[in-house]
Amino acid sequence: MTSTLDGQSEADDSIVVTPINQVRGELRLPGDKSISHRAALVAALAAGESTLHNFSSARDCAATLECLRALGVFVVRDNSAVSIKGAGAAGLHEPQQILNAQNSGTTMRLLAGILAGQPFASTIGGDASLLNRPMLRVAEPLRLMGAQVDLEASGCAPLRIKGRRPLRAIDYQLPIASAQIKSAVLLAGLAAEGATTVREPASTRDHTERLLRTFGAQIKQDGSATTVQGGAELRAREIFVPGDISSAAFFIAAAVSLPGSDILIRDVGLNPTRTAFLTTLRTMSADITVSDERSECGEPVGSLRIRGTAFREPRTLEVSGAEVPSLIDELPLLAFLAASLGWEMKLSDAGELRVKESDRITATVMNLSRMGARIKELPDGWHLESGGKLQGARLASFGDHRIAMSCAVAALCATGPSDIEDAGNSTTVSLPEFWSLLESISQ
Fold it and tell me: What is d(CA 72, CA 141) in angstroms, rounded to the nearest whole number?
């Protein structure tokens, strides 16, 4: 795998990925992006100074820290350690400028929940991609709680929020499964009078609940309903952020797709709401084992060993319905992996993929088609037919980190090199180290 500028301008920022035989070695990944966002936001509301170890290197998480600074929170970063002097429940300051969430939907939606309970006006903006993503779904419950939240006519950002304190407690049924909307309502619930309940149509990641409990909030779980008691006084904590399982997925997929591979990924988060990708691969007979399991600040952590084996015959992978929310980040990767292995994949009920950093349905279908796969685009998914070996091609990242990294995984076992447009810059959103880490285990 090499980067090249042959025949391209430096501004093109493309990466050329050449086929390899296998991946072998040991990795430790930067902290989980989802947990890092949430830990910083909750620490900002706590009394005292919190230290967050192994904080994510993602550009998205840096955007969260910058927004907190603009709200008067004292934040010091020393490599992967972040110290945050919490402002307390009502100690945030009215920002003097638009809060820039950059490309981070998590920053925008979760911060909106916090700002709904602050007695001042604020605006959250972002880059062109973020400003095209739907925000009505977070505005609606916050309006029910008493905050004024104004959007563009399209239902998109910027979010102009006039908060109030206290907010009204609500019992809210999410129209779609969304950990970000659930988290926004729970964070707003901290500033409400009484108990706020969020009900999910399907289980989503529960990092916010775990962190709120760790910092001293009263959280109750009853089936699909999560309740937070308003008025909690959060206390500063020292937090170790486990390695990002969503980032690990790309290296896991590379090992699964290349027979003879053998990699060990240490200290990665194994939250059961985030391991559906591992479960799916195991059902397809992938060789994945877990060791050194333990708990770190309420989150399960362990080490993963993945050995690549030759699959005897093509398999069919079908994903739909309640399975989709727990695999939403990894669905494009599963398609690229299935195509690399010659498997069939049928995906439906995944229309949410169209409103991510890119339209990930179109991006997946277009790139795999360029590599010679037989794949049909559907309104809410795709149908990938089983087939032969992928061919190297000119691929498009669409400025989307997960599409760029998924393309790279498929390119490793294609015939001939693949050139991925805008791949270097796009991966900094979640894993700036991706290319160097992949290089370090490629053989």
Answer: 26
